[in-house]
Amino acid sequence: MLSLTIIIILFTAVVSFIAFSNQKLVNDLIFHVNPIREKNEWFRLVSCGFIHADIGHLAFNMISLYMFGELVEDQFAIFFGGSSKVIFIAFYVTALIVCLIPTYIKNRNNDYYRSLGASGAVSAIVFAGIFLYPTAKIGIFILPPIIPGFIFAPIYLFISAMLSKKGGDNINHSAHIWGALYGVVFLILSTHFLSNVDVVTSFTEQVRNWFLD
User: 115, 88, 97: which is closest to 169 by C-alpha?
Assistant: First the structure.
C-alpha cells in the first residue's frame, strides 16, 4: 500500500506535468492575489501547491518531500494511531495555507503577484522531521549530509530571511520560512493535545546528548 507521502508526490507530479503544457490550468490553480481578493478564490492557497514552474522546481520539492515525508508519516502513526493519516493530510494542507497567509497580506494590493509550488508545505514536513530527529545529518545541494539538523535549521531560516529581504529572484522565501515554523508548531501542538508524546523534551535531550558525546 502506498504511503500518503508517495500519493501526494504522484498527484503533484501528474498535475504539474499537465500544467507545464496547459496555461489555463496554471491560471486556474496558481496563487494570484486578484481573484482571491475579488472573487474569494481561497482554494488557490492550496491548489497552487500542486503546480510548479518547471521540472527542476518540481523535482527539488518532491525529492525533499520524499526524504522527510515518510519519516514524519511513520512517527505520526506511532503518535496518533488510527488518526495518523487524517492528521498528516491536515498537516500538509494547512501548511500550504498557512505559509501563504503572510504572502497574501504583504501583496494583497499587488494584482501582479503570483506564486506556485509546494515549497512551503515541504518546508513544514522537513522541519517537523528535523525536530523529531535533530541530530540527524543533513546535506544541501552539492554538500553531503554532514550538518546536524538542529544546526542546519537556523542557518536555513537565516539565509531564507536574507534572500526574502533582498528579493528579485522570483522565489517566495517567505513561504519557506513560515512553512518551516508552522511545521514545528503543528508538531508540538498536535502531539501535546492528541497524544502523550513530549516532542520538546525529546528534542532537547537529543541535542544535549549530541553535545555530551
Answer: 115
122-134 per-residue burial string, b: 16 or more CB within 10 A, e: under 16: bbbbbbbbbbbbb
pLDDT tens, 113-156?
Answer: 999 999 999 999 999 999 999 999 987 655 667 899 999 999 99
Euclidean distance between CA atoms 63 and 46, whole angstroms: 20
Residues 52 and 59 sit within 8 Å (Cβ to Cβ): no
pTM, two decimals, is 0.94
Tell me if residue 198 falls in helix, strand or coil. Answer: coil
Helix or strand holding residue 32 (H, E): strand 31-32
88-106: per-residue pLDDT in tens? 999 999 999 999 999 999 9
- Number of other CB atoms surrounding residue 106 within 10 Å: 12
Distance CA 124, CA 137 (A): 18
pLDDT tens for each residue of 176-192: 999 999 999 999 999 99
| Mean pLDDT of the residues in the chain | 94
Backbone CA torsion sign across 46, 2, 129, 54: negative
* The C-alpha cell that represents 56 in the structure block: 527542476
The rounded distance, in Å, linking the Cα atoms of 4 and 89 is 8
Domains of the chain listed by start with CATH number: 4-212 (1.20.1540.10)
